[in-house]
Amino acid sequence: VTGEILKTKSLLDAIKKKLDESAAGDLNLVDLAVALKILSDKVDVITYLKEPDSDPRELRFKLNGTNKKVKVDIKKLQEAIVFVDDGEESKEESKDKLEVDLSEEDNQYLDEKLKDFKIETGRGGIIEKKCMMQLMKTIGDFSKSRSKDISKQAQDKRIEHYGTDSEKYVDVILETMSREEESFNYCTTAILSKLNVSQETYMRSEQALIMDPMSQMELLQKGIENEDTNVEVPSELDKKKTIEILKESNDKSFENYKEYSTAVKKKDPYLTPVVISCLSHDYILKEHKYDEEVFKAAMFKHKVFEDQDLAMYMQQKQFELFTLDGGMPFMPPMGGMGGMG
By residue range, what is the domain housing residue 152? Predict the structure, then answer.
């Protein structure tokens, strides 16, 4: 719900700006029609997901085709979710999974990061909200520090097949996703082991946090703040040029996607947004000589997604994403032009 509300607000701001700044004869009716269609869809999604008069501590859903609604008490639902082990043998297996072999470098990194970290728990052994958010950030930072080389190597491998072999290109993406997932799981397990936190406690605490609407908003904001980077951005890559290249690369990636569509359908139909994102970054490297790390740093530095015209463009691209391959099976989170992030 939070994500849909933020997307809708961004779209409304963009439409208002366009109407305020343009004379009646200068308005592009096609663009406005697409924007209004997307806006209508967003309103339908929000209405379907949650009733506007719902209490913040509950979720209320309409049952389409009836005059009934379902009301869910968030607190009771959180307390109702329990992860159970199937006997002593499973518990021992779970304990074993918490042990990982750390390199000397990783061990020093974690000792420094966690030296003052204290786990605070509340009712039912659930990790307290602020503590859990900090724990998730620490895991994310550790994972990011270990996967920088993975991202760099991935783009180097993709470029070898960019525009020449769609199947090998998609295979590189799948291999990269697998390596990144493995790295993230390693980081999670390593930190939980250092803090003597069980997987069960972490999963229950994570579920409780995700189910809290206010926490969702805070997590979104922290996610944006945590995208900071120390990568140096070339002086010529200012905000205007960054946005121009961003739009150009996304238009090109949507155009080129048809060459990769068959390979995506064959290997993983849910991969479309990721492939479009990779095609965008690889086009930028080929045509403008900015690699993925540098261009992402430029997008963060200039806060390009706060630009209202770009917000309108982003909504259009997300709408186009729905039409690819006869309709997308899911909608990716906001964070890029139809998948670029």
Answer: 103-225
